[in-house]
Write a structure and sequence with these properties.
Structural class: alpha+beta
Shape: elongated
Number of helices: 10
Number of strands: 7
Order of helices and strands: HHHHHHEEEEHEEHHEH
Distance between the termini: 29 Å
Helix content: 55-70%
Length: 426
Amino acid sequence: MGKRRGFFAEMNYQAQQAEKRRRQQEAAAHRAHLAAQRQAERAVKAYERAQAAAARSSAAAKKAAEREAARLLVESRLAEVDSMNTDLSNALADIDSLLAWTLDVDDYVDLESLKISEVEHPPFKPGPLAVPAPKVAEPNYAPEPIYQEPPAPSGLSALLGGKKRHQQAIEEARATFEDAHARWRHDVDVLRKGHAKEMARREKSETERMTDLSAAEEKYRRECERREAEASAHNAQVTELINNLAFDVESAIQEYVGIVLSNSVYPDVFPVEHDHTFNLASRELTLEVSVPEPSTVPSVKAYRYVKARDEIASTALPVREKKERYANAVWQVAVRTLHEVFEADRAGKVHSIALTVGVDTIDPATGLPATVPLAVVAADRETFNTFDLANVVPQATLQHLGAAISKSPFDLVPADTSRGVRMRGQ
């Protein structure tokens, strides 16, 4: 069977898959699985620690340590078995309750809920562009030299040639000052030029940073506008779908059914695919459902630990139980699918459903892909909606509807459609 989904159906399918994973994580069965898994991991680690302790022990303590390691090995294997049996039990329970999964859920899809009410934008993260370059520190200039004239001689010193010596001291002091001042001026000029270069480099760096920051802000703004535009276009498409559905546009009815079927989330152990076409003239939905091959469904009844061989063995499900479980799953899928479409179609666009539940497999005679029909049924809305599905036996429901059903779905025996399903109820 070919599988195809419309745009909204695919979008809705992905959202439902995410929601399924969230519900599974919150479910008691999942918590039991995690608890068993943690217990198994703790037991394995305890065994490994005991082995290490035995290797380090003295000869006297080695036997006791080895006995403890052996005990912990058994404990770890039993915990592993418990984890495996928990997973198996959950998987079998999921298969046995395929119909019950949907009965507490209203399958109607409010198309308005597919609209994007608020566009979520990621925060703008400029990173290093938001950080200004460090400011350039002012140079640390040395104090400007100050000329200090030597004191003039007085008294006897002045009379004994002091004035001449004073004049020489003045000339020497002035020469020393001028030399020191020239060096100071040179050092100041070097510092100022270096500071000016650093300031110029910082100004250039800041100009480039601000240019890049402005470009990043503009890019972020365009991305936000694109997300807003995409949301608006998406909402316009939803509005168009709602309007077309109200006016009985065939493609819109088909799209809505696709959305409904994409909401039909099955357990991972029993995945299901849908394909459908709607004919407005007859108001009939032709629906094909693909279920997994029998070989993919669990065939183990339970796991056990065999201490003598230090191995985990399995007990196979009785053949009869495997066949009954698989057949019942197929009948549940058929009834569930009819229910989901009719319940979701509140406006009554679909008057009848021609349903085929089958398996995609390889024909052993030709080696080519083939589809084996396991249940073929036609149901009208008025009749089907009178059933109380919480109390039905799915196989009996299909027989009541005049369905053609396989005598042995597990053995992939095709349903006998030679008489036609619409004639069987007559």
